């Protein structure tokens, strides 16, 4: 990163802080991956961020990973925001209802909801056609990654309706309705896009924005682990010979999409984007932010070189 780039990045961060200081967000599914990156970026912008998920330092979720909501909340606070961890299973309606009652009681407002609940990685069998796939696992993907978003938005929206403002962001994979290699995975990710579109239609008369955002090839904790690397030496993964390793050179950290969401939250004209599906690289083109390492990875341009006919 050049000195000019660093200065520009700092300037944009300060502008976000001026606009978002004192604003309140819930990042549902912020234990790791894109959710943690988004919470971190909102912390950089000075927001109060409720970090939700199932894994705490005392109890792990069925994902059985080490990352916790407490860690994410601490990162938010370290970056300049206020991180508040709340253990929530978003498939349990009573827990979601209690979460938003807590937010309204403590803050009196809700400016941003990010739906990033997923948990489908261990349930998705990429080698099986839909009739060969474990049906229970396939249906569980829908319950875990679509129904949870619906439940969460159901209880978040009334707070926004009272204040006649707010932004709901659905995190998805991809910018269209095309097949994504597994029926159950596709249904979940396309479902998130349509949730944003449908919520936008219902909320439009009230001035509340709903949209979907996709990252590119995400350099998440699990993906780094899959390739046997860490963030400091992630480029070594390209030499691993594992499937798709060659595409890893255009990967992005979770903070990249996070800064995209923070840019949207700080944009006074964000309502003009309601109902749309956006990308981390497209948001980078528009708002000019950078990834954690100062790079501006552009999965869209890279994907176009792989699929010139699309």
CATH architecture descriptor text? 3-Layer(aba) Sandwich
Low-confidence stretches: none
Shape: globular
Helix content: 40-55%
Question: Class, according to the CATH hierarchy?
Answer: Alpha Beta
Strand order of the largest sheet: 3-2-1-4-5-6-7
The average pLDDT is 93
Main beta-sheet strand count, sense and barrel state: 7 strands, parallel
Query: Can you identify the CATH superfamily?
Result: NAD(P)-binding Rossmann-like Domain
Strand content range: 5-15%
Helix and strand run: HEHEHEHEHEHEHHEHH
Helical stretch tally: 10
DSSP strand count: 7
Structural class designation: alpha/beta
Number of domains: 1
Rg (CA only): 18 Å
N/C terminus separation:
32 Å
What name does the CATH topology carry?
Answer: Rossmann fold
Describe the 3D structure.
This protein is an alpha/beta fold and 310 residues long. The chain has one domain: Rossmann fold (3-Layer(aba) Sandwich). It contains 10 helices and 7 strands. It has a 7-stranded parallel beta sheet, sandwiched between helices. Helix 5 (135-163) links the parallel strand 4 (112-115) and strand 5. The longest helix has 29 residues, at 135-163. The model has no long low-confidence stretch (mean pLDDT 93).
Structure in a nutshell:
This protein is α/β, with parallel strands linked by helices and 310 residues long. The chain is 45% helix and 11% strand.
């Amino acid at each position: 990163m050049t000195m000019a780039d660093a200065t520009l990045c700092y300037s944009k961060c300060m502008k976000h802080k001026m606009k978002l200081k004192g604003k309140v967000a819930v990042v549902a599914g912020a234990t790791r991956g894109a959710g943690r990156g988004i919470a971190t970026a909102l912390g950089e912008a000075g927001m109060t961020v409720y970090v939700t998920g199932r894994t705490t330092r005392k109890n792990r979720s069925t994902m059985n990973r080490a990352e916790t909501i407490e860690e994410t909340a601490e990162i938010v606070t370290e970056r300049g925001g206020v991180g508040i961890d709340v253990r929530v299973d978003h498939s349990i309606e009573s827990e979601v209802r209690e979460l938003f009652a807590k937010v309204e009681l403590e803050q009196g407002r809700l400016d941003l909801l990010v739906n990033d609940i997923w948990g489908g990685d261990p349930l998705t069998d990429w080698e099986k056609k839909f009739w060969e796939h474990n049906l229970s696992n396939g249906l569980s993907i829908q319950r875990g990654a679509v129904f949870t978003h619906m439940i969460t938005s159901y209880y978040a929206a009334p707070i926004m309706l009272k204040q006649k403002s707010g932004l709901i962001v659905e995190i998805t994979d991809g910018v269209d309705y095309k097949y994504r290699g597994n029926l159950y995975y596709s249904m979940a990710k396309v479902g998130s896009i349509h949730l944003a579109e449908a919520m936008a239609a219902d909320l439009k008369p009230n001035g509340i924005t709903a949209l979907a955002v996709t990252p590119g090839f995400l350099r998440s904790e699990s993906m780094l682990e899959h390739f046997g690397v860490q963030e400091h030496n992630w480029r070594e993964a390209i030499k691993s010979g594992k499937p798709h390793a060659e595409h890893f050179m255009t990967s992005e950290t979770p903070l990249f999409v996070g800064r995209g969401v923070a840019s949207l939250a700080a944009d006074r004209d964000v309502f003009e984007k309601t109902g749309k599906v956006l990308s981390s690289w497209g948001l980078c083109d528009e708002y000019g932010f950078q990834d954690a390492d100062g790079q501006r990875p552009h999965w869209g341009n890279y994907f176009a070189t792989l699929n010139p006919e699309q």
